[in-house]
Structure to design on (486 residues):
């Protein structure tokens, strides 16, 4: 068989494809458990730092972090009805995959799609932090289109369901040095104590156009502008308005107001 | 050419980035932090060594009609495996570098060395060539990222070097250095510097500009 014959070419291509695909598949399969564990750990860190349950000043190691996260009261809600959905296991529910799933996801009507997401999952995992029998904090996942890509974050609200206890963005691709300030602690700390809703449960929270003056009415609902990152700032305002509006967690917040939840195990 | 030269020439004399102007995409994209640059450098060098080694091994059996397909398959497999390893054991780095690790497949340095060296040379030479080119690329990345991270953030590998003005220090950071265009300027100045130091790298002019037409003839 000569080096340049078609048979030889086919043989070489087939052999290369087989050997390479075996190597790649082996690597993927063998490393999958480690990667899944990393993802879980990452999510645990992001959520646990918003619960206020972590001991101050020390970071628990990976094992402790996972144990703490697993002990957290995690539930799935159906977003539109605002009710808990007990059929879905919150620890295996994949909210990203659900977005494009015909059963689990839905198209957001364009006039309501202020955060430019196109589609969202019908269900969302929520995390409840208890202080005895009283709800202490509620942690909700949020997302929205940023300057270059989707912003993903978690927001923690206090027991009044309006005061922000903490915010973190765990995935973003905003402009370095400008929009990526949304991940900086010195900006996020301004969120603490701000309110999402006014007394009539209208969404008032927004990222201001400039520095919020102390003592003004705005100080209740607004955080300082991000200098040089108007698009990112507007994106953050929009995602808050979507997720706390009637098409987002609005119905869920209403359910919780009318019928305060009880800790898991106490029946709900 | 001696084996030492195979290794040392690509460092500056035949540097893949500053002389051949290859691998610019990642050199612009990920050099805003020294840590990312180091990981990228190691990843690219590893891919280069694996691909040069594998291609040199099978070079006598590669029909010329399908050689590019086979080369790219080998390169892409090496990149995917390394990407998976990073995701498993360095998840933070994998997240920062995101798509740029998978884009090593299209990095012209890798295919360039496969064609220019591994297809024609034995295993030893191919490995030295891969190490040399990987290191040459790494030198550029580390140089550019040191300037960018220091000027843009006042840090090196995340450690504070220059105290920032708004945190009570004196250094006013320049966000331009965190954006991709700054890498263009820095690499441009590097190319200029190296070619002034080694004039043999200068390329002959492609054309001569026409003389300016005089006032009356315009």
């Amino acid at each position: 068989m000569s080096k340049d014959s078609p048979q030889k070419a086919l043989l070489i291509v087939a052999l290369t494809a087989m050997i390479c695909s075996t190597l790649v598949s082996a690597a993927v399969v063998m490393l999958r458990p480690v990667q899944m564990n990393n993802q879980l750990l990452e999510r645990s860190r992001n959520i646990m730092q918003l619960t206020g349950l972590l001991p101050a000043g020390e970071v628990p190691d990976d094992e402790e972090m996972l144990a703490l996260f697993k002990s957290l009261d995690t539930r799935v809600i159906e977003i539109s009805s605002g009710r808990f959905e007990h059929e879905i296991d919150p620890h295996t529910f994949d909210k990203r995959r659900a977005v494009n799933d015909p059963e689990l996801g839905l198209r957001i009507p364009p006039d309501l799609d202020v955060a430019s997401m196109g589609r969202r999952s019908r269900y969302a995992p929520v995390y409840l932090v208890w202080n005895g029998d009283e709800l202490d904090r509620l942690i909700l996942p949020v997302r929205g289109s940023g300057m270059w890509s989707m912003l993903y974050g978690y927001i923690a609200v206090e027991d009044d369901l309006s005061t922000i206890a903490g915010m973190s963005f765990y995935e973003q691709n905003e402009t370095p040095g400008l929009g990526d300030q949304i991940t900086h602690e010195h900006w996020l700390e301004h969120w603490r104590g701000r309110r999402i809703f006014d007394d009539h449960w209208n969404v008032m929270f927004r990222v201001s156009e400039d520095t919020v003056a102390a003592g003004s009415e705005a100080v209740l609902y607004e955080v300082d502008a991000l200098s040089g990152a108007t698009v990112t700032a507007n994106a953050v305002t929009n995602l808050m308005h979507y997720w706390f509006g009637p098409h987002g967690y609005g119905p869920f917040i209403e359910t919780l107001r009318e019928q305060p939840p009880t800790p898991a195990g106490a029946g709900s | 050419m001696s084996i030492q030269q195979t290794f040392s020439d690509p460092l500056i004399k035949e540097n893949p980035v500053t002389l051949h102007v290859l691998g610019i995409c990642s050199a612009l994209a990920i050099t805003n932090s020294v840590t990312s640059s180091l990981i990228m450098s190691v990843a690219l060098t590893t891919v280069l060594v694996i691909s040069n080694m594998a291609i040199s091994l099978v070079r006598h059996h590669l029909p010329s009609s399908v050689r590019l397909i086979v080369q790219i398959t080998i390169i892409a497999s090496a990149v995917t495996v390394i990407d998976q390893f990073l995701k498993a054991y360095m998840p933070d780095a994998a997240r920062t570098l995101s798509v740029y690790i998978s884009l090593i497949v299209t990095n012209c340095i890798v295919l360039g060395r496969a064609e220019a060296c591994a297809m024609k040379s034995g295993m030893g030479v191919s490995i030295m060539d891969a190490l040399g080119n990987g290191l040459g690329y790494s030198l550029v990345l580390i140089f550019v990222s040191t300037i960018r991270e220091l000027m843009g953030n006042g840090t090196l590998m995340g450690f504070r070097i220059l105290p920032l003005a708004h945190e009570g220090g004196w250094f006013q950071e320049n966000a331009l250095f965190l954006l991709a265009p700054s890498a263009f300027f820095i690499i441009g100045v590097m190319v200029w510097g190296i070619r002034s130091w080694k004039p043999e790298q200068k390329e002959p002019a492609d054309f001569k500009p026409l003389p300016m037409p005089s006032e009356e003839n315009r």
